[in-house]
Amino acid sequence: MKRTRGEKIFNVVNLAFLGGVALVALYPFVYVMLASMTCPTKDGREWTFKAYELVLGNPEIMTALGNTALRTVLATALTLLVSCLAGYALARKTLPHRGMVLFLILFTMIFNGGIVPNYLLIRNLGLIDSIWSLVLPLLVSAFNLIIIKNFFQQIPESLTEAARVEGASETAILFRIFLPLSMPVLATVALWTAVMHWNQWFDAMLYIYNDDKQVLQTLLQRIVIQNSTAMQDRVRTGLDISRLTPESVKAATVMVTVLPIAMLYPFVQRYFVKGILLGGVKE
């Protein structure tokens, strides 16, 4: 079908606008990347990866990176498991007091106890300085739970009835029918959860006192806000770091923090839009 002149003009303007938005969003990432790979010289700046060698040679950063990866994987897996179990139950309209349970879940999206009650609860449960203090408080998101519940409700009831006729239990129905059909929404929730836990730093600052258990984002906050030269003094390497600036070390640290989670997105991108649309809130 031949496009009209107005449609062609709209497409050009739309592409130009979206291209400009993309460039604005991409500029900070490119700026930080270039800052991390250059160092000042007498003639200007030269390319170097010494900042990355310094950062990756820092045992504190590598330990924090491992702690963050463990937290992200553990929290994402447990969140998906618990959310799927709860979402499957709430998707069944025969669940007793289903309306009240949904109300209580939605209530938590508006009101919460605050920092002090949360800290007292974590301390009284004996979770201080433990990875569970970072995982359990954020285990269930009301928004993600509603998304999964609504996705499950879109699955035809006839599949469930046929499975029950064949003698399948509720657990078998969930894991053998619902979950294989729910990959788009599960991938979307997994991405949201992984990004959230990867970027969290405030809870680790409150609950984690042992530096060997600290996560990467909290360590990054210390490096960026305080001083990168302290990290240079703690790392004993054979590198010539005399020309490295604190800014280049900070930029390299930011890139090391951002790249792992950014590399995850392309693998789940094809599920992202579909999962959001099919899991839209509706009864």
Please sum up the structure shown.
The protein has 15 helices and two strands.
C-alpha end-to-end distance:
38 Å
Q: Could you tell me the mean pLDDT?
A: 82
**Strand arrangement in the largest pleated sheet:** 1-2
Our estimate of the beta-strand percent is under 5%
The total of beta strands comes to 2
What are the main properties of this structure?
283 residues, 71% helix, mainly alpha, MetI-like fold, 2 domains, globular
Kindly describe this structure.
It is a single chain. The chain has 283 residues and is mostly helical. The protein folds into two domains: 1-36; 59-212 and 264-278, MetI-like (MetI-like fold, Orthogonal Bundle). Helices cover 71% and strands 3% of the residues. It is built from 15 helices and two strands. It has a two-stranded antiparallel ribbon with strand order 1-2. Strand 1 and strand 2 (44-47) form a beta hairpin. Helix 2 (50-56) packs across helix 14 and helix 3 (59-91) packs across helix 12 (216-225). The model is unreliable at 279-283 (pLDDT under 50).
